[in-house]
Amino acid sequence: MGIRHSTASSNTFIATPYSSHGWTIQTKQHKIHTLQTVSYPWPMEIHANAHLTSADNIVLSILAEDVDGKAHLDGREIETSKDQAAMNVLAKISDEDSDEFQSSPFSSWDEEDLNAWFRVVIVKPYVAWAERIVRRRADVVFLTHLGYYCATIIPSAFYLYYRFSWPHAACHWLLETYYAGPFTLLLHNHIHNNGLMVPKYAWLDHAFPYLLGALLGHTPNSYYYHHVKHHHVEENGPDDLSSTIRYQRDELFDFLSYLGRFLALVWIELPLYFFQRHKYALAFKSLLSEASSMAAMYWMAKYDFHPTLFVFLIPLIQMRIFMMVGNWGQHALVDEIEPNSKFRSSITLIDSQSNRHCFNDGYHTSHHLNSHRHWRDHPASFLRSKTQYQAKGALVFQNIDYFSITYRLLRKDYNRLAQRLVPIGDQVGKSHEEIVRLLKAKTRRFTEEEIATRFGKA
Ligand SMILES: [Zn+2]
């Protein structure tokens, strides 16, 4: 049973590539601009398109098959051989020891999409060289990105100090905004894995977070202190300073309170958090990072205000806003019964912004389940654990990113969110209205009594 693949204009039916011959490395065949409409009694639209990664297309197709199968098979068990075949494909394309490993020198394009001449003459030698610098063959893309940033944002920043102009400042701001997401998720991989380079190039691991981080809105090591040493310890629970559970997550005022608290108080709240847990070195270092950064920016602003505004101040404030908008989107939908379940306190997205451009950041539940999991392994891991995701009532969305999740929630646009949900497990078969009610229940503020009960905090 295949999914009805219809082009938006012609409604032409085309067979799925795996419907009769089993799975092969045919991932490109998924890359068709189509609107797949699963014939199910509610308006679910699954968009598979050329911008999704090969892995995302496979995962999405499997989930759509599940929905389609359940609709047509009247509750009979879904065939799982396709899942196994898909997992094998995903494992092979991300297994660096496999002959079928797909390298990832760029995030915007897959290697096989590139012009043959360019691929042979430029890309292959580059990948061979870069693989000697990064620890994992799959991480060549990080070196590419560091190259982009070093070649553009650093000279641009120096030139702004040398000769400031408003058009240049505006272009610098646009470039910084464009880099903010990918760089932050690159840094996310760096802080979780204690570096990305082989020992010979450890100096690069030590240098780039300070230099590029400062230009792209991160104070020294603060992301590591806040994210690895605090957020992943508290898991959005009551002691997480960026926890969403005490806020009504579809109310603008609540979001602004959440954002305002972070912007105004994180510099002192994070050191106090570490101090109260007797982690004095972390308390001191996190306070020193913030205080020295603020002092340096104050001094730079006094020396030359306009370039400092665009090179340091706007990137810092903008990055902190972006991080809170993103964190809200990642942890706004929290299960009302089991908010401390890692399957139920965050979501999974299958979309191009989060996964293609930000190194599979959409698989946030998979990341919280194992924060050391390599970014290329998330899709295969998701499919491997699919029955657990189904049983736990995890939430999976497609064709929407975290910023859009936050935006839609704050507009209470549950209709759009329900349309973007890919139902799994018991969610399959629910009506549109039931899905809307289900989502609404997961944005409700937890009372202190509920927090005490659910999180076992007396
Ligand atoms: Zn993380």
From TrEMBL:
One of its GO terms (biological process) is lipid metabolic process. The keyword Disulfide bond does not apply. The chain crosses the membrane at residues 140-162, 255-275. Keywords: Membrane, Transmembrane, Transmembrane helix. Residues 166-395 form the Fatty acid desaturase domain. InterPro entries: FA_desaturase_dom (IPR005804). It comes from the Eukaryota. Pfam families: FA_desaturase. PANTHER family: FATTY ACID DESATURASE DOMAIN-CONTAINING PROTEIN-RELATED (PTHR36459:SF1), ORF (PTHR36459). This is Fatty acid desaturase domain-containing protein.
